[in-house]
Design goal:
homodimer; Arc Repressor Mutant, subunit A; 2 domains; 3-stranded mixed sheet; two-stranded antiparallel ribbon; 6 helices; globular; DNA-binding
DNA sequence: CCGTAATTGATAATCATTCTCGATATAGTA
DNA sequence: TACTATATCGAGAATGATTATCAATTACGG
């Protein structure tokens, strides 16, 4: 079985687990988010689905992403300096380090970071559901580029 | 001297410190963000400025906020479930705990939290400029409300 | 395999944000 | 205080991402 089919099946399983009705569009979108580390934009997702031979409209992409967000399967990242939202599979909590120059997004899995939610709960009395941490800076490559142009 | 005038002067000083040209609109907008704990939306800021007897257009509010963001004086928070951005004076780093029911935003000043940026820098090699942490949950009051309706 | 409720998708509508550009106000200097 | 270059202001138009519409299609429990 090719890798592509495996991830489609994994996505289908995940949809069933979360009691979300399975459709080809949803399977492809979720499998893309589960396996890529692209943190894709709406447009990238739209092109990916069509590029893989499935019909889809922008409305469906928006609807599907909202559904996945509501089920805490993915999160929305306000990351792209072009004003486009980016999306990420988020079953395993992590945070994002974003290059303000090239818009690259790097995942960081850090156990220390997970303590922040508990602290927030203690400090405020809120019942915490989730949280989002984003760090902005220059990636090593862009630091080099800027040095060379100076 | 009344409090209102003091905060206008404090805002003027801050603008001068950051070498931002001073205008009445900028002074009022910054003083509002410096003193209120509203985390106001664009619309709230617009109404506040006009309500205090200053002329202003929406374009100026947007321009001014972008200018203050670029100078790291304030940040933009994707917080309001109505899809409106919210703004906050951010000279002293802190994070936000947001009620998903009533949209209330609570500031938390926590020294532990500040370490996250350093960790991110070490993990990724990025040159970090700033970061943003948002926690989503239910505030104590909304927890009560929901209990009563159950 | 059927019936029903949910989903899809082409298009239109919405609305927050950005752009335009003439009018106006500011900072710096003397 | 007056002058001048320069930047900002602001009303309305333009933009463009997102949402709504609704008929046709599809998924899936029984």
């Amino acid at each position: 079985m090719v890798q592509e089919q495996k991830t489609l099946l994994a996505a289908a399983d995940k949809l069933k687990e979360y009691k979300i009705k399975n459709t080809p569009q949803r399977q492809v979108i979720l499998s893309y988010l589960m396996t890529s580390h692209d943190h894709p934009s709406i447009e990238m997702i739209f092109n990916y689905v069509r590029g893989n031979g499935f019909s889809v409209s922008l409305a469906t992409v928006y609807n599907t992403l909202q559904l996945l967000i509501d089920n805490n399967l993915i999160i929305e990242i306000a990351a792209d300096s072009g004003g486009h939202m980016r999306y990420d599979y988020f079953e395993v909590p992590h945070y994002h380090v974003i290059c303000v120059n090239c818009n690259r997004i790097v995942d960081v899995f850090d156990d220390e970071y997970k303590k922040n939610e508990k602290n927030a709960q203690l400090e405020t009395g809120f019942q915490v559901f989730n949280s989002q941490y984003e760090v902005y800076g220059l990636c090593p490559e862009c630091q080099e580029k800027i040095k060379q142009n100076a």
